[in-house]
Specification:
about 180 residues; alpha/beta; five-stranded parallel sheet; 7 helices; globular; binds guanosine-5'-monophosphate
Length: about 180
């Protein structure tokens, strides 16, 4: 059986985290890749589970060693997908990477089989409300993320699939269908 490498992107607050976590909790044949980042952990985030939290020097060293399938600098921090995990895991399972658009498009360049899925909100207004209501970021951070929103959405034509998240179960079912088809 062939396994799928899927990159899921979408503007901050669109609900991609919930979609991915729910889907993965239901399927033993799909795992999420744990990225490396130089961002500081948020409250409750566990090293090795949510991210591998690295110092910048270590991240740059690993870029030099070609350790990442893709990486990008995002809001002043580096984020990257460990290549060895992907190569090893794809032998037995499908992988979902929850990554932003620049990294996703780069992943597709180096690994053309990567399936790109973008989650979009039913309305921008709704998304802004969700983003502000999440309460994990300060005002400045929220504004930066809102500014990023247009950029993320402007790349949706380069994605293989665009899914509107107006209902969690429907969105999950659509992604499962893509995994099974691909
Ligand atoms: P956060 O700091 O909120 O956890 O993530 C910020 C952004 O970085 C999100 O859009 C997330 O999808 C993206 N991201 C997380 N891991 C990676 C990665 O390994 N590579 C890339 N390119 N983006 C990532």
């Amino acid at each position: 059986m062939k396994h799928v490498l899927m990159a899921i992107s979408g503007p901050s607050g669109v609900g991609k985290g919930t979609i991915v976590k729910t889907l993965i909790s239901r399927r033993e044949d799909v795992v999420e890749s744990v990225s490396c980042t130089t961002r500081k952990p948020r409250e409750g985030e566990i090293d090795g589970k949510h991210y591998f939290f690295l110092e910048k020097e270590e991240f740059l060293r690993r870029i030099g060693e070609n350790d990442f399938l893709e990486y990008n600098e995002h809001f002043g921090n580096y984020y990257g997908t460990p290549k060895s995990f992907v190569e090893k895991t794809l032998e037995s399972k499908s992988i979902i990477m929850e990554i932003e658009v620049v990294g996703a498009l780069n992943a597709k360049k180096v690994f053309p089989e990567t399936v790109l899925v973008m989650i979009v909100p039913p309305s921008i207004e709704e998304l802004k409300k969700r983003l502000i209501g999440r309460g994990t970021e300060g005002k400045e951070e929220i504004e930066r993320r809102l500014a990023r929103l247009e950029f993320e959405l402007s790349h949706k034509d380069q994605y293989d699939y665009v899914i509107v998240n107006d209902d969690l179960e429907t969105a999950i079912a659509e992604i499962e269908k893509i995994i099974d088809k691909e």
